[in-house]
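Attaching the record inline, Q. Sequence:
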Amino acid sequence: MTSTLDIQRRDGVARVWLNRPDVRNAFNDAVVAELDAAFRELGADASLRAIVLGGHGKAFCAGGDLNWMRAMAGYSWQRNRADAQALADMLWTIYTCPVPVVGRVHGDCYAGGVGLAAVCDVLVAAEGVHFCLSEARLGLLPATIGPYVVRALGQQASRRYFTTAERFSAAEAHRLGFVHELASAGAIDAKVDAVVQSLLANGPAAVKAAKQLVRDLAGAPLSAELRADTARRIADIRASDEGREGVQAFLDKRKPGWQ
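Structure, as predicted:
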């Protein structure tokens, strides 16, 4: 456990809990630094097959810590720029983590917390949770989280919620495709565990390669170079030990070695 995170590892799964329930798991510079360091370390752990990101207490993440925001009001432009860059870098670290990340949003998710949700690969939310991109109410912008939120929420919905700062429900987030799975508050862990078990059933290298493939294909032109690249990728994995084992296990009607 760090000062702001509770990290547990078991059976190839890491669970990272935001651990500031007294302030609704709000960000400050320590949270940003520790999340960045934690996901760098976890991403480099070859034994890990999945990471679950959640929060202790009533909220998933309420955005920026009030004391941190109060301090930032007195920062110079240069200090504000460095502070924002640290947040942007942390989000990139989670987004590019080679291990798939399952978000567990059990309570309300505001501002920077929506950015954290957006960088997860699979997002499970409890019914009754609300999301809010509240920055405009404070005369601010959801700038560092914006690239990830627009990709996950969609451009048209982002145009609305960036500018209106309205709350929207988990059910609406699910309708828009931002949330993958809805669950009752009492069933959210079972739903998260089901997603994790689906990840564990698959080839570890294939899962990481599939995550990278989505990032590389999103928005890429359908060019000859792209066709050649995708052909190379499938050839590489077919010829790998994991690919050969997976196909042979399927033909033999048995479980593959990674299970």
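The CA atoms of residues 204 and 251 lie 19 Å apart. The mean pLDDT is 93.

More tomorrow.
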